[in-house]
Amino acid sequence: MFIQTEPMPDASRLKFFPGKEVYPAGTVEFANREEAAVSPLAQRLFDIPEVAAVAFGFDYLVITKNGGDWQHLKPAMLGTIMEHFMSDAPVMRPARKEPGSNAGETSELVAEILTSLRQVIDPELGYNIVDLGLIYDVAPGADGVTFVAMTTTTPGCPATNYLKQGVHERAGAVEGVTGVEVDLTYEPPWTPEMMSPEAKLHFGIDQ
């Protein structure tokens, strides 16, 4: 994968062309990490301390730096962009929905996937990840590839890989699912308030 760059009139900004569609819907800009919560790619770029803003266009990205020299910053940015596109992760997350809010067959498929995901137990809390509130979104595509946005109770949780693997296996076991893409996010951070009423009752949390 070859990524071209192009200088801009504003020396603090640089345009990147990854040779792929980035944001076909038009243009969008993220001024901080909180705004970037809807984009796994933008979030990755904000992990670079010198990144001040990120914008997407049809086939390009514009990165604004808050300091440093482009010669030293570009390798990390290029590596981040390349890693993202090579992983086939989405540039933008689907709009978050409440489980079962889809219509028709898609709604039924989401319900089946959530039922299957309840078999994945958080080893620390001993309770299923759906009712713990660790599943943020389930979005089946028309081709059967299903996007699952999830979190863990704490960043760096030692059970992260175990839980992600469980999500892959249980979601992938549902009839009609042809593939599973799991996106781990900590935006918003998990809190016990995200538990289902049943989980809160189990843990003795006042509702």
From TrEMBL:
Pfam family, one: Nfu_N
SMART domains: Nfu_N
Domain Scaffold protein Nfu/NifU N-terminal intervals: 3-88
Gene3D superfamilies in UniProt: Fe-S cluster assembly (FSCA), Scaffold protein Nfu/NifU, N-terminal domain
PANTHER family: FE-S PROTEIN MATURATION AUXILIARY FACTOR YITW (PTHR42831:SF1)
Protein name as catalogued: NifU N-terminal domain-containing protein
Organism: Hoeflea algicola
Classification of source organism: Bacteria, Pseudomonadati, Pseudomonadota, Alphaproteobacteria, Hyphomicrobiales
